[in-house]
Amino acid sequence: MAFIEITSLSIFICFATIYLQQTTAEALSCHETDKAALLDFKSKITKDSSRILSTWDQSTDCCTHWDGVACDPSTGRVVNLTRPGVFTGPDDTPWDTMLYGTISPSLGNLEFLRVLHLGDQKFLTGSIPSELGNLSHLTDLFLYHNSLNGTIPASFQNLRKLSRLLLGENRLSGSVPDFVFQDMSSLTLLDLSENQLSGEIPSSVGKLVSLQRLDLLANNFSGSIPSTIGALKDLVDINLSDNQLSGIIPVSMGEMAKLSGLDLSRNRLTGSIPSSLLKLNSLSVCKLSDNKLTGSIPSSSISSTGLYKLYLDNNMLTGELPDSIGNLTNLYWLLLSNNRFTGKIPSSIGNLKNLGSLQLARNGLSGPIPPQLVKLKSLQLLDLSFNPLNLVKLPTWLSKMTSLFRLYLAGTGLSELPEWLTTMGLAYLDLSSNALAGELPRWIGNMPRLYSLNLSNSGFHSAIPVEFKNLAGVQELYLHSNNFTGGLDSIFAKPGRQYVILDVSDNMFAGPIDENIGDLNAMQRIQTLILSNNPFGGSIPKSLGKLTYLETLKLEKNGLMGAIPSELSNATFLKSIMLSNNNLAGGIPSSVVNLKWLQEFDVSHNMLTGEIPPHSATIPAGSFEGNSGLCGSPLPPCNTA
Ligand SMILES: *[C@@H]1O[C@H](CO)[C@@H](O)[C@H](O)[C@H]1NC(C)=O
Ligand SMILES: *[C@@H]1O[C@H](CO)[C@@H](O)[C@H](O)[C@H]1NC(C)=O
Ligand SMILES: *[C@@H]1O[C@H](CO)[C@@H](O)[C@H](O)[C@H]1NC(C)=O
Ligand SMILES: *[C@@H]1O[C@H](CO)[C@@H](O)[C@H](O)[C@H]1NC(C)=O
Ligand SMILES: *[C@@H]1O[C@H](CO)[C@@H](O)[C@H](O)[C@H]1NC(C)=O
Ligand SMILES: *[C@@H]1O[C@H](CO)[C@@H](O)[C@H](O)[C@H]1NC(C)=O
Ligand SMILES: *[C@@H]1O[C@H](CO)[C@@H](O)[C@H](O)[C@H]1NC(C)=O
Ligand SMILES: *[C@@H]1O[C@H](CO)[C@@H](O)[C@H](O)[C@H]1NC(C)=O
Ligand SMILES: *[C@@H]1O[C@H](CO)[C@@H](O)[C@H](O)[C@H]1NC(C)=O
């Protein structure tokens, strides 16, 4: 009996060993349910040109042979499905792949899945299957940068272990149901950016107590920012820019003690900046640009000494700039343009020793400019344009600001142009809309590093001095709305860099336009050429057609005669051709009015004749009127009788 028992025991042990060996072997191999789910996923992929799913084969073990699939070795259940479109391959080569097709709902059967990464495949389309809400073990769900549409599935409320949810850069729409975030207390990263999501930001975001980063930028969220957001004590970065958010900035945001990056720009926010916000020690980037914020910056409020970027431009802020701004000694960018600030520029700004960019344009600031600004040894950009500074003269200490690279002082009441400007290394200079008058000085040619020069809308009345041709670096030149006389030879004669934009409209330039304009070195890269409203005579040079970069040509209100040259159509990128109010005669060349990219065309008030050639661009009748000899659509039909 005992023997039999022992024998049966040893037989049992023997069987058990075989069984165990079998189950170990089975445990390593792929579970049938998971294999079927993965094969169904593959079957919905219509194109896999990079063959990133090529190892997924019915006959092999998904746990050991399929790229991007990882199993729990003790259960054989799939835990990771990781096929990102952009990755680093063996030997550090970067790979960029794409998958076309939809995401199969059967992925919802991968019961033990923890990581699902199909981000950056670009062309996964259709909606996110609600079945993914069944993946209760999921910690990472990455579907960003695809072409997914439809809504965020309500079933996602079941993903309670989720730590990272990245759905940005898709075409998701509709509102986000409030309950979705009710139980995601482990979520650290939420990215829904660059979709078309609308409705309010669910107030349940306040339940995401572990959240460190929230990206909802570039959607269509409306309503106000939920005040519950202040409960997110671990939040480091929040970006809600480019939405339709209205209402006030919740005061509770000033309680987010770890907040470092805050971006609420390009919304419709109103009310004032909560005083607690600019006291956050952790804050390094604060962007509130392009809203409708009002009120002033109370002097007591600014003490975020870690601030590196402070963007408050394009709002309706009022009051004086507080002296305490000078305490923000880490500041590199200070953008306050386009508000309603008044009073003087605080001299304490001179303490911002790291400041690289100071933009205070279009406010109500009065002069003088505090000389303490000379201490800003790192300043590269200074924009004080369009403030009632009544400068008259440029302060001479400006010449000591050796790192200054861009200087914008348009509309600041200047009436003198000092020669010491030539000692600075300026690349961008805008002194337009001032009371600069008289002759353009000959020393202007001594600024060879200049790239962009704006002297428009002042009172210059002289010819362009020959020394102008020494401005070898200039590519953008705005001289419009002055009383310049003579010809354009000194402008055209320069060697070196070629112009990209040239606007000399609204002056008294006269004579014919150089017939070889299309062969001049300086013009070979011109994109925008504006000679309108001058007393130029002669004909439109045929050689303009050789300017193959030309997109905008404006020759309105001159005294131009002769025909519209058909050669213009050789400048194939022309988008805008404006020739109204001249004395042009002859017909409209069909090749010109049929230029491929043409958007704007106006030949009104000339002496043109004949039938308007059939054309595909939509051009209003008004663009042809005032030519008694023109007929045909969009004007009345030609009289064929
Ligand atoms: C699954 O992915 C996670 C995170 O990428 C990783 O830590 C883990 O080791 C992976 N599991 C397996 C079984 O490869
Ligand atoms: C899986 O998800 C779908 C859709 O959300 C649901 O109808 C179904 O009951 C779920 N299945 C399981 C087993 O939970
Ligand atoms: C999603 O895109 C597919 C085409 O990829 C389209 O057939 C479907 O109607 C779209 N659905 C929604 C909700 O826009
Ligand atoms: C965004 O929302 C506004 C109203 O808040 C609506 O007029 C607009 O059509 C929406 N745009 C998109 C792309 O959904
Ligand atoms: C927010 O997103 C926009 C758009 O991508 C970006 O330009 C900006 O730098 C982001 N803000 C922060 C603080 O990172
Ligand atoms: C901040 O600036 C104000 C005014 O310039 C000054 O009175 C105050 O002491 C400064 N605070 C700190 C902490 O430096
Ligand atoms: C040049 O100055 C004019 C007049 O102040 C201004 O309207 C224009 O925007 C400036 N151009 C550029 C490119 O800054
Ligand atoms: C140009 O001169 C005329 C008179 O010669 C004057 O009426 C006009 O205001 C001047 N234009 C500018 C921009 O200075
Ligand atoms: C320029 O245009 C004229 C007239 O349309 C045409 O005969 C000539 O071939 C064109 N030249 C080039 C280089 O395209």
UniProtKB/TrEMBL annotation:
<dbReference type="Pfam" id="PF23598">
    <property type="entry name" value="LRR_14"/>
</dbReference>
<feature type="domain" description="Disease resistance R13L4/SHOC-2-like LRR">
    <location>
        <begin position="271"/>
        <end position="470"/>
    </location>
</feature>
<keyword id="KW-0433">Leucine-rich repeat</keyword>
<keyword id="KW-0325">Glycoprotein</keyword>
<keyword id="KW-0677">Repeat</keyword>
<keyword id="KW-0812">Transmembrane</keyword>
<dbReference type="InterPro" id="IPR003591">
    <property type="entry name" value="Leu-rich_rpt_typical-subtyp"/>
</dbReference>
<dbReference type="InterPro" id="IPR053211">
    <property type="entry name" value="DNA_repair-toleration"/>
</dbReference>
<keyword id="KW-0732">Signal</keyword>
<dbReference type="Pfam" id="PF13855">
    <property type="entry name" value="LRR_8"/>
</dbReference>
<dbReference type="InterPro" id="IPR013210">
    <property type="entry name" value="LRR_N_plant-typ"/>
</dbReference>
<dbReference type="InterPro" id="IPR032675">
    <property type="entry name" value="LRR_dom_sf"/>
</dbReference>
<dbReference type="InterPro" id="IPR001611">
    <property type="entry name" value="Leu-rich_rpt"/>
</dbReference>
<dbReference type="InterPro" id="IPR055414">
    <property type="entry name" value="LRR_R13L4/SHOC2-like"/>
</dbReference>
<feature type="domain" description="Leucine-rich repeat-containing N-terminal plant-type">
    <location>
        <begin position="32"/>
        <end position="72"/>
    </location>
</feature>
<feature type="signal peptide">
    <location>
        <begin position="1"/>
        <end position="25"/>
    </location>
</feature>
<dbReference type="Pfam" id="PF08263">
    <property type="entry name" value="LRRNT_2"/>
</dbReference>
<keyword id="KW-0472">Membrane</keyword>
<dbReference type="Pfam" id="PF00560">
    <property type="entry name" value="LRR_1"/>
</dbReference>
<keyword id="KW-1133">Transmembrane helix</keyword>
<protein>
    <recommendedName>
        <fullName>Leucine-rich repeat-containing N-terminal plant-type domain-containing protein</fullName>
    </recommendedName>
</protein>
